[in-house]
Amino acid sequence: MLNRENLVLPKKITTAKVPPLKIQGIKTKLVPFIAESVKWDGAGTYFEPFMGSGVVGFNLEPQKAVFSDTNPHIIKFYQDIQTQNITSEDVRRFLEAESRKLARTPADKNSYYYEVRDRFNESPNSLDFLFLQRSNFNGMMRFNNKGMYNVPFGRKPERFQKALITKIVNQVAWVESILKGKEWLFVHAPFTDAFAMMKKGDFVYLDPPYIGRYDGYYDAWCESSASLLAKLAQNGPAGYAFSMWYENQYRKNTHMQEWTNGVLVTTEHFYHVGAKEANRSKMTEALVVSEANFNLRNESG
Fold first, then answer.
1. Would you call the peptide bond into 19 cis, given omega within 30 degrees of 0 as the criterion?
2. What is the pLDDT of residues 94-118, one digit of tens each?
3. Which helix (H) or strand (E) holds 61?
4. ω into residue 10 within 30 of 0, thus cis?
């Protein structure tokens, strides 16, 4: 029986709020679908071992949460906001100053963007990371095999207009506000570490990379990792919801055959990832929810 007093999910979300780090494949448009497909009383801890942008967990706002990722820069960014090492006003001052430098340079290899990228690779910091993510090509997150950020410039020297700076500042301020009073941890760790922490009553949302579409996010993702994830989730103590593409006009995702213990629901979604038109077509997105945590739509009122 669910404790309705502490109920976190299902949750009615009409329009999801967007966090300051925008990353390709961000699940903003799928947040309402996810939030209405799951039931969880919130008595335990919420886990998100593939944090990425954090858009799902940030919109669900559980009281206790562990957000983790293998990308140390994402984790450090949110740790810095949590500890007030950087604030929304710091972000405003930084972007206003850096935007003027960017605007004075051309949209080619001589752009100030590359100076910031070199500076970040030599000595990473959260403000430079934010600048790069919001002015790079198509919101990509890519590092080479030495861990160096290598996404090219988005070729817009006037990128940081006043309205965009205000929008980003407001996004950081939103994160600051939802962190207040919460027991949230941001941890640089592989997904296996997160599963080692889970207990009965916890809930985990899983949004791993797509097999066969590794693009240098930070580390490799392969079939063996995907199979291990399926095994840990379906045999672990926590409830789960697993996001993955189901099919497109060309093929079906055969990996979905490894998810047999939950309830599968689908929705259509359009992705805008990368420069190729083939990467911008309609996709059927699947959500596999542990049976005890699946919410029938008529229960979500």
1. no
2. 999 999 999 999 999 999 999 999 9
3. none
4. yes
